[in-house]
Amino acid sequence: MSSFGKCIGVVGLFVFLIARPLGWGQPAAPGSAKDRARIVLSEILPALDGTHLKATLVEVHYGPGEASPPHSHPCAVIGYVVEGTIRTQVKGEALMTYRAGESFYEPPNGVHLVSANASSTEPARLIAYLICDHDAPLSVDVPESAERQGVGK
Question: Are 79 and 139 within 8 A, CB to CB?
């Protein structure tokens, strides 16, 4: 038998003895490792200086009916609602409602006109993941003039 033939034989034996019993090449059964992870959000980030990158994870709690005053985040934000329902609006965009299990993206320096618990009876909680390439506060107050423009539009 040629060297090539022996190589094919070894590969075939590997597939028969090892790969098949391990389930390689077979469709994933429900609840398998392939079902454990899914992409829930994918966004292209703004150009960042890769020498100063910093990621910060913040847990935000809103009691029933609570809201944050208008503010801005100097860095890109990915939000994930863990509990309850959140209402949010960035200046120039529509008012959005996100429920537990949903996520959203906010570009850097967007003015957050609305950030609130949508329920007056149940708490809400979200995780905010901020990606930044410079030292900056996580949140900045917005001047009154920006507050008066476009809420709920």
Answer: no
